[in-house]
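Worked example 4.2. Below are the chains of a multi-component assembly; read each line carefully before continuing.
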Amino acid sequence: MTGPVASAAGHVALDKPEGRRWRWQMVVPAAVVAVYLLTGLVGESVAPYSATDFNTGPPLAPPSETHLFGTDGFGRDVFSRVLVGARTILLLSLSATLLGVGAGCALGLVSGYRGGAVDETVMRLVDVLLALPGLLLAMLILTSLGPSSLNLVLAIGFVFIPKSARIARSAVLPLRNAGYVEAARLRGAGWASIVFAELLPIVLPQLAVEFCLRFAYALLLISSLGFLGFGVQPPTPDWGLMISEARNYVTIAPWPVLFPALAIGLLVVAVNALADALTSSGERRVEQYL
Amino acid sequence: MTLLDVAHLNVGYASARGSIRAVRDVSFSLDRDEVLGVVGESGSGKSTLAHALMGYRMRGTSMLEGNVTFDGIPLLRCPAQELRKIWGRRIAMVHQNPLASLTPTMRVGEQIAETIRQHRNVTAAEAQSAVAASLRAVELPEGSDIARRYPHQLSGGQRQRITIAIALSLEPDLMILDEPTTNLDATTEAVILDLLEDIRSRIRMAMVYISHNLGVIARVATRVAVMHAGEIVETGTVSQIFTAPAHSYTRALLKSLPRPGIAKPKARVIAGEPVLAAASIRKSFGRRTGTVRAVCGVSLQVPRGAVVGLVGESGSGKSTLLRCIAGLERPESGTIRYLGSDLPASVAERGAHVLRTMQMVFQDPESTLNPSLAIGTTLRRHLIALKATDGAAARLAVDEALRRVRLDPAYRARLPRELSGGEKQRVAIARAFLSAPELLLCDEPLSSLDVSVQAAICRLLLDLQRDYGTSYVFVSHDLAIVRYMSDRIVVMYLGEVVEEGEAGSFDRHPLHPYTEALFSATPIPDPAAANARVRLKSQISDADRERPGCIFNARCHRRKGAECAEIAPPWRDAGGRRYRCHWPPSELADQQGNVAHPAARG
Amino acid sequence: MNSLARFVAQRLALLVLTLFAVSVLIFTITQLLPGDVATMILGMQATPQDLATLRTQLGLDQPALVQFWRWLGGVLHGDLGMSTRFHRPVVEVLAPPLEKSLILGLAGMAFAVPMGLALGLLCALRRDSLLDVTVSSVTMFAAAMPEFVTGGLLIIVFSTWLGWLPPFAGTGSARTVVQSVTELILPVLALSFVILAYIQRMMRASVSEVLDSAFVQAALLKGLDRRRVIVAHVLPGALGPTLSVIALSIGWMAGGLVIVESLFGYPGIGRMLVFAIRNRDVPLLQAISLVVAAVYALANLAADVGQRALDPRVGSSA
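Applying the procedure described above to all three chains together yields the following structure tokens:
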């Protein structure tokens, strides 16, 4: 046991330095994500079969030498489909996150710094948009716009704007009256210069964490939408869609569900772990004890 | 008879950069009746020492060696159950910052009661009466509902009394006090120190009193230990330390304190139109309890080339006034004339000339510089904005600016977190002087710095003032510093000016009763000085702002009569000074002349 | 207490306004849905006159604002319109699935909340121990993965490989109570894993923060025993933010329900939502969206009120 409650025990329960462990927390997930990115880039060329061809082998064949992950109900090679699916999901998630987080953060930073009526209005709008769960909002938008890849990016980007705006706003709020902000005002700096030249560099680490978290959520949303049939349309392989297609024979042939599930799971966990490592990358401050 | 014996105590912490030794080979002993004053600045390891004296291991401790023997019991090798029986009952601690050390979700009365219940077998009724007794012992009004309140509903002084009450509740043999009055106003601090003296006279108790304030230590302690970088560099009796310090660090510490009667060389004050003339400034803030009138009809004049010291305690409105002048707050009414023209109320409306010539230095060195930018970048941005310099000329100007504040130009590449508090404040001053301002507004620039650093920054500010002929408005709650630095002093209380005048005349005697109390409350680092005991009863309260009559009426110890509560007091002149009171100057001087003033001796 | 009541009243008013704005949002989005509703109801063979008559009947030829007003009026009277697919009042159509979802949701909370709180507290007290690291890793996994992945993996392990539990839930014929409960286990797990993870992490974080605080240290130095310190000093401060997370998870569950019910074929409101979208059953869709939004908003309100009630500092005149 460690901690102040334990320290009262008076026995040796002393803390070890944290430096080494933190590095592992960062490197392992980053490596995993890198592997996925690589797969996204070269997946199609490396895949043994085409991801869309039917009957490359007997349907629902278990994993074997010729079909590493087995085949699905239509005889498509699961391994190839998983490899090719990486590119779609990564590309879409990244675009949507960049769009949503970029726009949302800009909005939140400006709104948070300026305060007053502008802030109030923006926050009310944000509250309204946040009144619906993200998945539901995305589903509604997609059904009105139609399920294309571009619309997927737009819908999810739109869903991300309010949350990112909130985060950026709360990051900037405590800094509004900092000494350096007032010094900047005293040299005649306008709000735009203060927000983007003074405050943005400071909150960037927090926004980076938010970016990672949104990215993980984008992966989640895209695959969930795929699972429900609202996302990427066939024949493009989508991990979520693969799971819903193969779901009904999971008791006899689990592999068309298992491998896409593991693919999603591993990626999402790695990205979340990365976000975790980024948040706790501050050193423990010992100075407070002196 | 020795109560506490510390031998070769070493405490270290593990950090990513390796281990840090916070307490190095500390040894001393304490008798049953002694008060040991431990003097040290931030980073000296005094808080770690305080906790180690109880045998408590703070989170992150990687090394704890040595012996701490309390009444024969070796605390560092004691099992947890034994330690728990000692904590609170035989050794009690009064923590720094009571707002943080009282549990915010528990009523204060309960926080006293649980200590009593833990160590004694008492019924609920007995516990209740014990709580009441504790509250009486710290002079908190009985019968009020203080025991039922939460910590955030009490004032700073009341909270500190509660922590003392908790520590006293079981009449411990040893009390350890870690900076107990640091966050309090001078007048409140004086009253708490009186209380501690009173308690010591009634209960036989040893104390370890930790503070960075030499004046307080001089009042409270019988023996002194000076701590620096984890070591005790010198011990001795109070008079030994103060009259014949042996160690160089102790000497430096004593030298860096401004004492009454010692003033800086006079500034070159230019007669004629004042640099700044603020008239009838009014500013209020909306709070949940209602509007607070922070500044109420204040007028201020700053002669050219002078240092005007603005002094007052929390709630006096001095910072708000300064910020109104700076344009960071917008006053509701009032005008300001600056350099001969009317000054727009908001900084965004002011022209380049005004911005160049009026600059500000802020209180908190930690937030005065953008933590993500290198020092050189911050200074360059300021230069570009105010003087449109860039490129090679800017680089030269930055180096010059750093040298001006006695920092190596190589600092331009460093980030703020690599600098100490004092160094950051120097950079802030360098930034302010980049455009050679006519008026420098200083909002408590020394308050967050260590004592030894304060002296250096103080000197720097005065040197720059002399070199540039800049006028200053210097805001502080620390009377000693204001008296040292200022040519004119303005005393504020609850949003109004109560007295103002030439600094030198204040040294002879303060006139307004509040100024008198403030002077008397300032602890002086001279154990031989008899402190004139003027103590203000009752708490400062925002409600006093709204009452008719004199703003100081509720706490005044020289109340004249009914007029103090009903009629606003007139301004009175007294040779170079003005103050607002119903007493005329001659009668006030008579009343105050009977009370010994330390300044009168020097 | 008076200020608390006032706070609740203010927030309720805000809630009503928000719901109104949300209903505008839902209505706007759904009105943009492609596909002609009349054609979908009557089929491709319908004559133009029939289509026109139906459109007038449904009020589809009116300007958008009027349609919205009529709809809103209906909602306030408890009339959520007529399902275009089922040809029955929406209120009737929604009742059984709503009940089913409530069962699933409540079971999920009943599992996730106590477990989450207990595990969070335990991990914070034994920070950096083996237990803490294990639990934290597992919860991170659980919190990260989408419910259909968690659910899918659970099905593979417990249905395909071990054969202990059925892979579908809640469909069709009469079952014994034991059967009903058994088939709920996997969906409840899949749904509540994420919530358990969030609660555990929040509890751990806030307990850790409180444990490191000066007042806990001060309490220990008074000689108080560990149990008293944890119960009386640590928990009250730490519970506040965690309660917010618990209230918010009710809202998150709404999204999770859609996926879990689709995965397990459970006839709840989530599955009905997907059905409504696929079939362009606009009234049904609007009603479900509104219900979800209302639950979400109430959950947020509960979170705010709970936090305020627990922490005496929030909102007082200090």
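Take a moment to check your reading of the output against the notes. The CA atoms of residues 65 and 71 of chain C lie 10 Å apart. Chain C touches chain A through 60 residues (CB under 8 Å).
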